[in-house]
What we know:
This protein is α/β, with parallel strands linked by helices. The chain folds into two domains: 3-184 and 364-379, Rossmann fold (3-Layer(aba) Sandwich), CATH 3.40.50; 187-360, Glycogen Phosphorylase B (Rossmann fold, 3-Layer(aba) Sandwich), CATH 3.40.50.2000. 43% of the residues lie in helices and 18% in strands. It is built from 17 helices and 13 strands. The chain has helices spanning 3-7, 19-25, 27-35, 50-54, 72-89, 98-112, 125-129, 133-146, 162-167, 215-227, 250-256, 270-275, 292-299, 312-315, 330-341, 344-360, 365-379; strands spanning 11-18, 39-45, 59-62, 93-97, 117-121, 155-159, 177-179, 201-206, 232-237, 261-265, 279-282, 303-307, 322-325. The strands form two sheets. It has a seven-stranded parallel beta sheet with strand order 3-2-1-4-5-6-7, sandwiched between helices. The chain has a six-stranded parallel beta sheet with strand order 10-9-8-11-12-13, sandwiched between helices. α13 (292-299) links the parallel β11 (279-282) and β12. α13 (292-299) crosses α16 (344-360). It is globular. The two termini are 15 Å apart. Residues 1-5 have low confidence and may be disordered.
Amino acid sequence: xxxxxxxxxxxxxxxxxxxxxxxxxxxxxxxxxxxxxxxxxxxxxxxxxxxxxxxxxxxxxxxxxxxxxxxxxxxxxxxxxxxxxxxxxxxxxxxxxxxxxxxxxxxxxxxxxxxxxxxxxxxxxxxxxxxxxxxxxxxxxxxxxxxxxxxxxxxxxxxxxxxxxxxxxxxxxxxxxxxxxxxxxxxxxxxxxxxxxxxxxxxxxxxxxxxxxxxxxxxxxxxxxxxxxxxxxxxxxxxxxxxxxxxxxxxxxxxxxxxxxxxxxxxxxxxxxxxxxxxxxxxxxxxxxxxxxxxxxxxxxxxxxxxxxxxxxxxxxxxxxxxxxxxxxxxxxxxxxxxxxxxxxxxxxxxxxxxxxxxxxxxxxxxxxxxxxxxxxxxxxx
Length: 382
């Protein structure tokens, strides 16, 4: 018997399309896996975040796979490259993050003969937001693919809300399914600061500037609330993304920046943003997993105004941590803004409840990484 095989640490390989996405959401997973004694590698498109990923103790392996490409041949080529990487790394567990990572990583794991797979769906995106025939057909096709050719007896599914599990035909209570509080958040990194005085009610949207996030709904709702006499200001934080066909053009963002609405561009100081605002707004049209922007705002003790879509409604309970309104409804959102602007005590109570929700509801990084590491322990070679 080769004793070196018995002592070889379990090799965990993350597959994620973009290094920035792993760096912004999943460093805690890598740190926890390294601390548990696993050998960790992150296969991704490397741009500016290699060092911060390597600081966790993980190895970074480059793979070029354009996230916006819908070309099956390009995806197949990337999967072939990845399969060779997985074999070279002697991967024991492949943890695929987000939809494209699952499709490419799952195909590569099957090609490489690696049955232990974790599929972490971070939201269904436009496919989840669309309720027409095209959306339903796409979800059905995805269900058959992920639960068919890309599945194995050792495949485990990680979801950020139970609706996404059901969309793939899975029971959230099934032993192969784990529901977690997004990627988790460290409350210590998002301290609660004293709220600024009211009026006005200072509202912020911190998000990727995509039409699916409903930012245009927020703009229209603020205009309506102000027209009704409510003292409301709206700040937009985020950078335009010309490579994303669903991105809001910069010209539109600049046009919106008037009448109590200001686009600030990207920010690296999220706690500073919430220290200067009362309410976090995300009027998403759907397709979310569990929005990190809401986790961050809640951890900072800010009330939340969001929509009744998967992920958002799993964190925010209407009337407790914030207000939940119909998606794509500027009138309903304006009504919520006016209610909050008229009741500073309510805003304060909701903000305090939001912080408690993070600390006790399973949304901390510690709680999420504990659940994920339990999956690794189950799948690790004996």
